[in-house]
Amino acid sequence: MCGIVGYAGPRDASEVLLGGLGRLEYRGYDSAGIAVDDGRQLQLRRSVGKLGNLAAHLRERPVVGRCGIGHTRWATHGGVTEENAHPHRDASGDIVVIQNGIVENYLELKERLVAHGHQFASQTDTEVIARLLGEYYEETGSLEQAMRRTLAELRGGNAVVAMTRREPGRIVAARLGHAGGIVIGLGDGETFVASDVPAILDYTRQVLFLEDRELAVIEAGQVRLYRLDGATIERAPMTIPWDPVSAARGDFKHFMQKEIFEQPRALTDVLRGRIDLDDGAVMLDELTFSERELRQLERICAVACGTAWHAALVAKFAIEALARVRVEVDYGSEFRYREPLIGRNAAVLAITQSGETVDTLAAMEEARRQQAKSIAIVNAVGSQAARLADGGAIYLHAGPEIGVASTKAFTTMLVAAYLLALRLGAARGVLAAGEVRRYIQALIELPGKVERILQQHAIYEELAERYHGARDALFLGRQANYPVALEGALKLKEISYIHAEGYPAGEMKHGPIALIDRDLPVVCIAMRDGVYEKMISNIEQVRARGGHVIAIAAEGDALIAAKADYVIEVPETLPLLTPVLTSVPMQLLAYQFAVRRGCDVDQPRNLAKSVTVE
Ligand code: G6P
Fold this sequence. Notes:
Bound molecules: 6-O-phosphono-alpha-D-glucopyranose
Number of helices: 19
Largest sheet: 8 strands, antiparallel
Radius of gyration: 25 Å
Strand content: 15-25%
């Protein structure tokens, strides 16, 4: 979604803002803008399209100043135009504001303002905030006070950042609800503000996060924090471990490709410090449950969106099999509106890369309302999901994921889910130490096995060459590999725009079989597991109707090789863990198809990396 950056300090503000916005490009946007105080007035520069357009605009009409705010917009209210791009101004032109989130009651507020004689310059909900700030500034003579008064009128979740020419060198930032985060970066004699940590990592790792209903007054080298009701807050900064180099693309053509190849490292890091092979134990010290509570757990409601939802489906297989705890899987957007019954001895398991997906956060809040704990499996350090997780946040340690299509976050989510399942299984007496050890051993071997898959190139290029013109594709799998089939289809449609469906293979005869013809590539995941023979029958059914079978099979499986048009071999592991390996060919297939079709791999059309609005 939208990105926010602000700066107060001795550097050239335009440069800091543009650079910071560049770091947030992965969030997806359709226009961008900055406002900088040049000592005489607030200079606004805004452009539609990529940040390159804004940079060109700034080269033509440079603006020099030491304090400013910038924004990348992903349209919600109003079309993609320069007038609708942020920052927005109040009626006097002395106040500028940027916003993430949605003002739910903006129409009502706008009507009132129009009745007061305001003439709106844009169709956005953000301009309502700008104009309210202007009105309240006239009354209070203070941006901080005006912000308090304005936010008291807004409904919805928002992160709002504003500045005024009348208070040079000062930025006021505030947060309402969970739709937009605010992080403040503390430098030496300079201060940064942003929606996300990567925007400021080039400058500092000392950060403060704003919580719901908090406000910050930011100046060069200093920050004051308040609750919206006026109370002062004392909060120690925390140190963010990511380094800027790992956020850059390095030698890879695309971030997605880089992230696919980072998986061996990421899969190692997610295990780090959490396994003891000698004792056959999994340590998840981040969980806040007592041993007794773990034993008494009867039910887990797993909630997630997009790719993370597929990870939740795999988590269900793992937790039910290894810990014998019932797991229900919901989409965040459905869970929050269906009056869910969480019940006693139950926990919510939120799975989210960004930790900012609003529908997933809503499930965690529902858990709190029903007095159940929530556990988060989450990548972004210090994100909202991590902070809301009173049952514990299990960090993926995958490092920043920039490509919109999730890859290393997905496979590390699976491993985190296995660790949770093993920890639960051991605590509940379902798994003996020997059995846990067998799984730990297999987990330890996964990074190396992924490395082996990554060494194959030719097959993906060949497949992309042969099938890149396909209109549709079908992905089939069974058991724990059924979610992988869903994920394979999602990956392909997200970045190559080929229509793709994922199905549990046994369900094919109830519908998708009608799609099979001579033009349809069908990706079949056929590992040697409990449903291997069933999968072979499914492959026969596809072949009998002229479909092209691309099989994902165990290394050296001659039987599958004889039946399929193409085979992608993956190493064997314990059946429950195969999704970590079978999902890697899904990523590579989607990537090669998208590249062959000339698509924008890292920023596919209409998609955003983290969806902080409904
Ligand atoms: C967006 C992204 C997906 C992601 C989903 C959930 O739709 O494009 O790649 O899977 O959000 O995001 P989360 O950060 O909660 O894992």
